[in-house]
Specification:
This protein has about 140 residues and is mostly helical. Helices cover about 80% and strands about 0% of the residues. It contains four helices and no strands. α3 runs antiparallel to α4.
């Protein structure tokens, strides 16, 4: 009788394990099939998605810059941090590394600092986001 009770308790546990394994194995396959179907049927789905992502990124950047503009010390802090980045880039260059990513970050901070300073002088916080400069070189050596 005791063996019979233990086997009855094991059946639900085994069913749960079987269902979990089946779902775990089948989910990635279904997700891959859905992604392939979505991008495979029309090439426009990827373009629309990319445009939407670009639009969200631009809105996020604008909101981020507006929040930074509200901080009275941000422009000074960004300029100071850019100077520190340039010093770090010099050290990296002396040691034989690629300083360009650090210089790019310093330039971005300086640009943000200038945009915010100009907006404050004009008392206009509807800041326009400058487009990032395109680089023709690679960051990898």
């Amino acid at each position: 009788m005791v063996n019979y009770i233990h086997s009855i308790r094991a059946v639900p546990a085994l069913l749960i394990v079987a269902v979990t394994v089946t779902i775990g194995v089948g989910a990635p396959v279904l997700a891959y099939a859905a992604a392939t179907e979505q991008t495979g049927n029309t090439g426009q789905a990827g373009n629309t998605s990319q445009k939407a992502n670009d639009e969200r990124r631009k809105i996020g950047e604008a909101n981020d810059l507006k929040l930074k503009a509200r901080d009275p010390l941000y422009a000074e802090q960004a300029k100071s941090l850019a100077a520190q980045y340039k010093e770090t880039a010099e050290i990296v260059a002396r040691q034989g590394g690629n300083p360009q990513p650090i210089l790019d970050a310093a330039a971005q901070l300086e640009g943000q600092s200038e945009v915010i300073s100009k907006a404050r002088q004009n008392k206009n916080l509807s800041i326009q986001i400058p487009e990032p400069a395109a680089h023709s070189h690679s960051h990898n050596k």
